[in-house]
């Protein structure tokens, strides 16, 4: 399954009351964030979200995935990977749904009405506040990275260039002690992903040394991961790690991932300040949605290094 190595992802505490830009706490956490994202491309974050809301999000996920398949398939979208995904022979344990703009109550209500025409206010009242709180963590992480790179002047543009997708996932227990594939090894294609899971493990991350680490987050913590788009925007200063899900046992694994995603039409290009003789440009400017158009072709799905193939600068 995963590595037997005692290596663990860095743990970073975002729950301090005085964690505000310009404070000593902020500066300390900022250094930890940059070191973790440069070395591993991810870290475990301790972040203060009320226990009641944490519990409610998993109650909502169970409600969602208990719906009939025909109902779940109403969660459709023209955007790749934004609607219902499941029933794939190659990953039979995996099922997923997307809530586009989940941090905005009107958009969460819109999907709720599609899935529950009779209404389900408890679903809206757990999903939207959860997504909003996690989006605040996403903004902190991205701001810290830009500050570390001396690129604060780009922050407003950078923040305004993204939307949020809450991707909720269920992995069935394979009913065996042998490890079974829940989700293939891949890098995320977006800016930043923040994952929250129940206490059924399975996530594994590939280190730069080629070693798979089994991630065992503490109860209530989050996993923050860099996507290919942020890796490209920073000209490689932060690392986009391969990860996968391997399942054992009988229990289902539920997780919710908030993805910050570049808006259609926004061109991702590394700022000129990050390109020099020691750091040559790694990727040509690209549109994220156009890149996904390649990634979700048969050739793109088989290409582990799709970003480099699509817009990498020849060495």
TrEMBL record:
What is the official name of this protein in its record?
Fe2OG dioxygenase domain-containing protein
Give the function comment from the record.
Probable 2-oxoglutarate-dependent dioxygenase that may be involved in glucosinolates biosynthesis. May play a role in the production of aliphatic glucosinolates.
Q: Which Gene3D superfamilies match?
A: B-lactam Antibiotic, Isopenicillin N Synthase, Chain
Species annotation: Kalanchoe fedtschenkoi
Keyword list (alphabetical) reads: Iron, Metal-binding, Oxidoreductase
Report the family membership. Belongs to the iron/ascorbate-dependent oxidoreductase family.
Q: Name one GO molecular function term.
A: oxidoreductase activity
Would I find Transcription regulation among this entry's keywords?
Answer: no
- Source organism superkingdom: Eukaryota
Q: Does this UniProt record's set of keywords contain Transmembrane?
A: no
Q: Which residues form the Fe2OG dioxygenase domain?
A: 161-262
One Pfam family in the UniProt entry: 2OG-FeII_Oxy
Upper taxonomic lineage: Eukaryota, Viridiplantae, Streptophyta, Embryophyta, Tracheophyta
């Amino acid at each position: 399954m995963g590595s037997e190595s005692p290596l663990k992802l860095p743990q970073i505490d975002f729950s301090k009351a005085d964690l505000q830009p310009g404070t000593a706490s902020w500066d300390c956490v900022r250094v930890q964030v940059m070191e973790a994202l440069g070395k591993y491309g991810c870290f475990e974050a301790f972040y203060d979200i009320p226990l009641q809301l944490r519990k409610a999000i998993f109650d909502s996920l169970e409600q969602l995935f208990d719906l009939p398949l025909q109902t779940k398939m109403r969660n459709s979208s023209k955007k790749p990977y934004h609607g219902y995904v499941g029933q794939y022979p190659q990953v039979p344990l995996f099922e997923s749904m997307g809530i586009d703009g989940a941090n905005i109550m009107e958009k969460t209500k819109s999907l709720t009405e599609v899935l529950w025409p009779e209404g389900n206010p408890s679903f809206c009242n757990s999903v939207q506040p959860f997504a909003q709180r996690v989006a605040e963590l996403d903004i902190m992480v991205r701001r810290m990275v830009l500050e570390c790179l001396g690129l604060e002047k780009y922050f407003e543009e950078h923040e305004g260039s993204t939307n949020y997708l809450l991707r909720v996932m269920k992995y069935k227990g394979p009913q065996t002690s042998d490890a079974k594939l829940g989700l293939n090894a891949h890098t995320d294609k977006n800016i930043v992903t923040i994952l929250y899971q129940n206490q059924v493990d399975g996530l594994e991350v590939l280190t730069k040394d080629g070693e798979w680490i089994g991630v065992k987050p503490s109860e209530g913590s989050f996993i923050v991961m860099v996507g290919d788009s942020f890796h490209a925007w920073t000209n490689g200063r932060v690392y986009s790690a391969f990860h996968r899900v391997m399942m054992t046992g009988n229990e289902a694994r539920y997780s919710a991932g908030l993805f910050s995603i570049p808006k259609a039409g926004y061109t991702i290009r590394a700022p000129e300040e990050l390109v020099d003789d020691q750091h040559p440009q790694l990727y040509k400017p690209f549109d994220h949605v156009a890149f996904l158009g390649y990634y979700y072709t048969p050739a793109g799905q088989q290409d582990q290094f799709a970003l480099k193939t699509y817009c990498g600068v020849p060495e």
